[in-house]
Amino acid sequence: MLFSELGLSPEILRAIEEQGYTEPTPIQAKAIPLVLSGRDLLAAAQTGTGKTAAFMLPILERLKKFANTSVSPAMHPVRALVLSPTRELADQIGVNVKTYTKYLPLRATTVFGGMNMDPQTAELRRGMEIVIATPGRLLDHIQQKTIQLNKVEVLVLDEADRMLDMGFIQDIRKIMSMLPKERQTLLFSATFATEIKRLAADFMKDPQTVEVARQNATNEQVEQLVYSVDAGRKRHLLSHLIKTRDMSQVIVFCKTKISADQLARDLKRDGLVAEAIHGDKAQASRLEILSSFKEGSLRVLVATDVAARGLDITELPFVVNYELPNSPEDYVHRIGRTGRAGASGIAISLMSPAETRQHEAIEKLTRQTLTPQVVEGFQPGAAAPRDEAAPRRESSRSEGGRDYGREGGREGRSSPVRSTPRESQRDPMSLPASALMVGKSGEGLKTINPTAGSRRSRKAQREVPALLLPPRYKVEVNR
User: Where is the motif Q motif annotated in this sequence (predicted)?
Assistant: First the structure.
């Protein structure tokens, strides 16, 4: 089947053909005719199946009759509303809409949190037929009365399961209750969970259900590798692989925002250009990081699953699962970032002994055997080399960019006098005068026993930390 057989107008066909697309994907072939018929749609489709075009192309066909070049905002009311779980996905949908409307005078904009509302308000006041938004920021605009939704004809809930996972269910219900009852509703989700079905029952009219073959049979263009390694040495193996395999561009997936931030810091200490991206980052910072990564100036992008939604990096060569996801579906989503548009890619998973269960779940879902391998020098259970520093924790103290080692002080193992961290924090100049004796001509500083004959043992006497004394002094310990 060809796009030209789906009933789309020449303006839309011309725009998509310029992108090199002539044949629809399975979800597009099934969904486009149903959306054009005006029916509500409940579609099961995962990321990477072409679902954005599956709902956006027929929406544009429906809105084509409203296309005009008038400068009056009244001539451009919001007629299509797309709700997205993340800023990145909303932005990616917006980019696609601009591509598809190249030859149609329809206006579209995106609104999401983390950005100043004023520019978004200015855009909305110009009049926009299509608005792509995250639920929270859309409610902000509704409350500020900077957007009117009384003319909305089509509502799209994209990645509805993700929005529910992120706690947007009440926001979604509130928004849907504000829309005209006579509208078309399109819901796209990777799964039909109970809450999804309940939402459909409450707000959709006799929806048609469309399911395409699940993309659990991962892309054949992606080579999948699993390396067994102790959890404490994952960071070192990752740095080793990035450097030895000459990974010029790689996305590394972590399960939490905290671990993503920590890993990015550790990779920087290893001499790699790395940044973390997740929901707590300011939007301006996120966009700057993504821009640097796409341009190639940023080598390693450490991301959480939610933050990576909607990322579309052309010809991304490597993806690394630093931590195996709890959901095997997320594994499929992760490695789907590479091997796109016919290009080849490599997906590497670092598996610790505690992640066996996740590994087995991935094999079961994808119906593949992913045999763990071992990288020489990183065998599980093997002792780490002495020069392999442990990853620094966020609470580690540092001075001038230099970190303290495990011994608690900068003097290291070869220091003539070893002190405990608590002692090293004490200012020797604050010690009682009776505890110090300065030799003639400043020849040195000796400790004396101010409590000789007392019950205190010799071991309990305090030694003066050498590094905390002025350079001209040296320490001699009485034995």
Answer: 1-29
- Which DSSP string do the residues of 236-247 spell out, in sequence order? HHHHHHHHHTT-
Q: What is the pLDDT of residues 92-139, one digit of tens each?
A: 899 999 999 999 999 999 999 988 999 999 999 999 999 999 999 999
End-to-end CA gap in the chain:
92
Amino acid identity, residue 274?
Answer: A
Query: Of 185, 211, 237, at which residue does a domain stop?
Result: 211
| In a domain? residue 380 | no
Which residue segment(s) compose the domain that 251 sits in?
222-373
Q: Are strands 250-253 and 184-189 parallel, antiparallel or unpaired?
A: unpaired
Residue 231 dihedral angles phi and psi, to the nearest 5°: -55, -40
Residue 132 CB burial class (10 angstroms; 0-12, 13-18, ≥19): buried
Element (DSSP H or E) covering residue 51: helix 51-63
121 and 73 in contact (C-beta within 8 Å)? no
Residues near 243 by beta carbon (within 8 Å), at least 6 away in sequence: 272
Three-class SS state of 204: coil
pTM, two decimals, is: 0.57
Q: Which residues contact 63 (CB under 8 A, 6 or more apart)?
A: 79, 80, 106, 129, 130, 153, 154
The number of folded domains in the chain is 3
204 shares its domain with 242: no
